[in-house]
Amino acid sequence: MRLPLPTLALLGALASLPAQATDLATAQRLWLAGQKTQAAEQIEQALARSPDDLQLRFALGVMKMELGDRTRARTIFTRLTQDFPDLADPYNNLAVLHAAAGELDEARAALEQALRVQPDHAQAQENLGDVLVRLALRAYQRAQKVSLAPGDALAGKISRTLALTRDLTPTR
Hints:
This protein is mainly alpha-helical. The chain has helices at 9-15, 21-32, 36-49, 54-66, 70-83, 88-100, 104-117, 122-146, 152-166.
């Protein structure tokens, strides 16, 4: 199952905040104009001046995810969870990266942490449901592999869960 990359909707809200709002707004305009690499460079330049700025760091993480630089995005979101452990969004985005890499147990742990921090985080709730379905499929498939005589019930569960996973689209 392919996990979609996040959108920049949150960046619009972040751009309205006072810290580095001009840099964020400029980067968002560049991004929306299709100049995605330049937008990320704008954020990196702003971070050189304000390396601890939460909004800039988060924006760069989202941009790196969308640009396909998952290694850099993972590093950014991991550091954000360490520096700002009371924020749910970095955990949620880190979970999306883990899930995309097939690291379902790590994704579940990150989503559970996001929900401990913010129990009403709707996207983390939805993403956790998606990860749990994928974990169920993995368990069913393992059961089938080790079973001496897998039954029709197990085959049916695998079939239904496979169909369900095709419809899942965990997002940021």
